[in-house]
UniProtKB/TrEMBL annotation:
Residues 46-58 have a biased composition (Basic and acidic residues). Coiled coil: none annotated. This is AF4/FMR2 family member 3. The lineage of its organism: Eukaryota, Metazoa, Chordata, Craniata, Vertebrata. Pfam families: FAM32A. Residues 1-58 are annotated as: Disordered. InterPro entries: FAM32A. One of its GO terms (cellular component) is nucleolus.
Length: 95
């Protein structure tokens, strides 16, 4: 045991870390209240944005449905006008 009396009994210090960390001090984690407040703010802001969008849009549900179907029809007409680029071209290797 006499050989170990000169050994250091404090925690080891790493280079560049400054002083040794205090044993009794730890960072406190954010409380669940803070997280719940943040979530409530996010949800409320999303609801407010949706309400603003609805307030600006004065169309009835029937008008919205009609316009949605018109967009689908126009898109289908556009696709019909395009060439069929997904078809495999006929290639004859024997000729």
């Amino acid at each position: 045991m006499a050989d170990y009396e000169s050994a250091q009994r404090a925690p080891l210090r790493l280079k560049g870390s400054g002083a040794a960390p205090a044993l009794g001090k730890r960072k406190k984690k954010k409380a669940a209240k803070d997280k719940s407040k943040i979530l409530e703010q996010i949800v409320s802001s999303k609801k407010q944005e949706e309400e603003k969008k609805r307030a600006l849009d004065k169309r009835t549900p029937a008008q919205l449905a009609y316009e949605k179907m018109q967009e689908k029809r126009d898109f289908n007409r556009h696709l019909d006008a395009l060439t069929e680029h997904y078809d495999i071209p006929k290639v004859s290797w024997t000729k």
